[in-house]
């Protein structure tokens, strides 16, 4: 995710007989450029889907949140290590924490972002979890019962808890959880789309994707933010190699969606680091580019690949609506493919975020090049309350088209 998240948070949750899963989500660079006159201040912290649409905050707020997040991440990593004994991909997984999401949401509610439409102030990009455990029979049955034929509904959601998606009813047509199985029962008619999160989950992918297609999935998502070191962290060449081995076999069986890139490098085609990029020392892939330059190189390494759409993320100030138009319009023109916006959020007050969602959703619906879009996200403290009921922001997202 662009302007990369500043804190890492995590949660581990145990399943009963059928399996034990560890969900990790790291909220790795929460930063916001506050426009004062012509100068911008950058804040960053190292470690990273804490599942929440976040924002960059003042230096003192960021330090406090980062400190508590690191402690939560340390505790969760120990729990994950014990619970995910046979899952090699667990090490590459993002951490997701309901409590951390609530913390981010609380900060979002009290933090006003004072930036102009020309200032690109990024949201707190919360990381998400790659799930690689084998699907149990009970989960398979639940996913099969809830999966439906392809829907024309563009709007979707990223989620951690399957039951939290039901409050959105038929207002959404598809969902994903950065994993390989639905992990619960979805609202009837909502399609589950599995993801090959990173190299650590490749070993279970072929079987999981085959099963998902049998249960009604019509599309497959590839690597999550491979251009960012705290996420899938793959060079364009390595991602292209993985695509040919693990995604290409499903050509003709489902739509194949490209790796999802951050918006860290600004507009497609940009070779400079703009829009709140992490420092070079903080990014392992700086030499191969991040954001759009990374995608250019990936496509160059995968020229014979069958890629049906490009997956992209967008995080910035809720008031910077001009940037969202320019970013996706340029992407559609440059690559000549449909776009899946699999993560997006605008930072600001709740009212500003509501206005942003109404604007962004209308733009996505009216833009032919945007094939699917799903906000970040359906988490307790963000779009839903802890009991699964919708928050004010969640209600706006449900109704905004």
Q: In CATH, what is the class of the largest domain?
A: Alpha Beta
CATH H-level superfamily title of the largest domain:
Glycosidases
Distinct helical segment count: 9
Summing up helix and strand content along with how strands pair, one would put the structural category as alpha/beta
Could you say what the CATH topology of the largest domain is called? TIM Barrel
List the helices and strands and how they pair.
Blueprint: E1 9-10, E2 24-25, H1 59-83, H2 98-110, H3 137-146, E3 155-159, E4 174-176, E5 191-192, H4 205-214, E6 219-221, H5 236-247, E7 255-261, H6 292-301, E8 309-317, H7 321-335, E9 338-347, H8 350-366, E10 370-378, H9 392-399
Parallel strand pairs: 3-4, 3-10, 4-5, 6-7, 7-8, 8-9, 9-10
Antiparallel strand pairs: 1-2
Could you characterize the architecture of this molecule?
It is a single chain. This protein is of the alpha/beta class and 401 residues long. The protein has two domains: 9-110, no CATH class; 137-399, TIM Barrel. Helix content is 30%, strand content 13%. It is globular, with a radius of gyration of 19 Å. The protein starts with 8 loop residues before the first strand and ends with a helix.
């Amino acid at each position: 995710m662009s302007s990369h998240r500043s804190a890492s948070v995590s949660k581990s949750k145990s399943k009963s007989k059928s399996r034990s899963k560890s969900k990790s989500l790291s909220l790795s660079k929460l930063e916001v450029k506050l426009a004062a006159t012509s100068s911008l201040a950058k804040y960053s912290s190292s470690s990273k889907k804490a599942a929440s649409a976040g924002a960059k905050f003042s230096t003192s707020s960021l330090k406090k949140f980062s400190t508590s997040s690191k402690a939560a991440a340390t505790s969760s990593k120990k729990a994950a290590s014990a619970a995910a004994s046979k899952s090699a991909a667990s090490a590459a997984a993002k951490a997701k924490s309901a409590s951390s999401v609530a913390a981010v949401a609380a900060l979002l509610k009290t933090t006003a972002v004072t930036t102009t439409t020309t200032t690109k102030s990024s949201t707190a990009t919360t990381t998400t979890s790659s799930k690689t455990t084998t699907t149990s029979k009970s989960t398979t049955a639940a996913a099969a019962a809830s999966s439906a034929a392809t829907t024309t509904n563009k709007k979707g959601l990223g989620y951690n808890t399957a039951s939290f998606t039901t409050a959105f009813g038929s207002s959404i047509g598809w969902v994903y959880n950065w994993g390989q199985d639905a992990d619960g029962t979805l609202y009837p008619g909502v399609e589950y789309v599995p993801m090959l999160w990173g190299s650590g989950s490749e070993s279970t992918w072929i079987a999981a994707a085959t099963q998902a297609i049998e249960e009604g999935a019509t599309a497959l998502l590839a690597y999550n933010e491979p251009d960012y070191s705290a996420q899938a962290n793959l060079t364009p060449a390595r991602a292209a190699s993985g695509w040919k081995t693990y995604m290409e076999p499903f050509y003709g069986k489902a739509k194949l969606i490209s790796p999802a890139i951050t918006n860290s490098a600004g507009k497609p085609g940009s070779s400079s680091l703009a829009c709140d990029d992490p420092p070079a020392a903080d990014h392992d892939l700086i030499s191969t580019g991040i954001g759009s330059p990374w995608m250019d190189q990936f496509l160059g390494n995968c020229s014979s690949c069958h890629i049906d759409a490009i997956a992209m993320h967008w995080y910035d100030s809720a008031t910077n609506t001009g940037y969202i138009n320019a970013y996706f319009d340029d992407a559609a023109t440059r690559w000549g493919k449909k776009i899946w916006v699999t993560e997006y959020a605008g930072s600001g007050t709740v009212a500003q975020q509501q206005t942003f969602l109404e604007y962004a959703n209308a733009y996505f619906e009216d833009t032919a090049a945007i094939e699917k879009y799903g906000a970040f996200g359906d988490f307790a403290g963000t779009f839903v309350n802890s009991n699964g009921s919708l928050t004010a922001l969640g209600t706006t997202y449900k109704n905004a088209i």
